[in-house]
Amino acid sequence: MRVELGDEAENLLFEREHQLSHKPLEMDLLIIKMQNGIQLKKNIGKIFRKHNIIEYKSPKDYLSINDFYKVYGYACIYQADTKEMCEILPSDITLTMISNKFPRKMVNYLQKERGLAVHKQGQGIYYLEGDQFKIQVLVNKELSREEIEELIERYEGEKNNKWYSDVADTILRGNWESVKEAKSMCEALRELFREELEEEREIGQAKVIVQDNLESGASKEIIIKKLQKFVHIDREKAEQYYQQNLRELKG
């Protein structure tokens, strides 16, 4: 290449056997069907073929365009890293990307630059169609009320199972508003979400105290002291609740 490019080579950087990543390439999860021809009944598994690659983003993270290409790269390497030619066919591979929020920027990019079509297949389930690999995006925050209720009921009997704890800590936490309204919220879940429930109690109490005292003409200092006394919080948090409710009343 140096010889062929001649004088232009001085403007180029040549790296022999360039390492593709700083750490070993690892999928978050690989699910392999043990028998061919089995159709999964669960909505998230209907797209599954023989080999299914799963990429999971934590509730505080998001699916980016680079994440898509990383997972797509996993699929290509997985397909190619076999003893026989086309031992694994692209049509036997699926990609599932799980995010707390809908990855709008990534999806818009894939529609525009790769010509993929987006079809909603169910609550929180989106297929990206038009590629040789079957691809779906799962959005935790879009679970239906029925699915939330079902998860809560299942968790009550499996609270000591680490897998169920992980589900409660991610999917249910991402759907906090629905969880609060669920009729079947068991004691185990109340303990798991003790901090969130305590914060909800604080916010509700603080709102009543601040708004009632502002309407009666009480000074900021008096309201702050009442918040500390009756909500059982420190001054810094009392100041925070005071400012939040003051903005709400003004806005």
Describe the structure.
The protein is an alpha/beta fold and 251 residues long. It has helices at residues 2-5, 65-80, 104-114, 145-157, 162-174, 176-181, 187-192, 194-215, 220-231, 235-250; strands at residues 29-32, 51-56, 93-99, 117-122, 125-129, 134-139. It has ten helices and six strands. Strands 1-2-3-6-5-4 form a six-stranded mixed β-sheet, with helices on one face. Helix 2 links the parallel strand 2 and strand 3 (93-99). Helix 4 packs antiparallel against helix 5 (162-174). It is extended, with a radius of gyration of 26 Å.
Portion in helices: 40-55%
Q: Span between N and C termini?
A: 66 Å
Query: What characteristic shape results from the CA principal axes?
Result: extended
DSSP strand count: 6
What is the gyration radius calculated from CA atoms? Answer: 26 Å
The overall pLDDT average reads 85
Strand line-up in the sheet with most strands? 1-2-3-6-5-4
Helix and strand topology:
Elements: H1 2-5, E1 29-32, E2 51-56, H2 65-80, E3 93-99, H3 104-114, E4 117-122, E5 125-129, E6 134-139, H4 145-157, H5 162-174, H6 176-181, H7 187-192, H8 194-215, H9 220-231, H10 235-250
Parallel strand pairs: 2-3, 3-6
Antiparallel strand pairs: 1-2, 4-5, 5-6
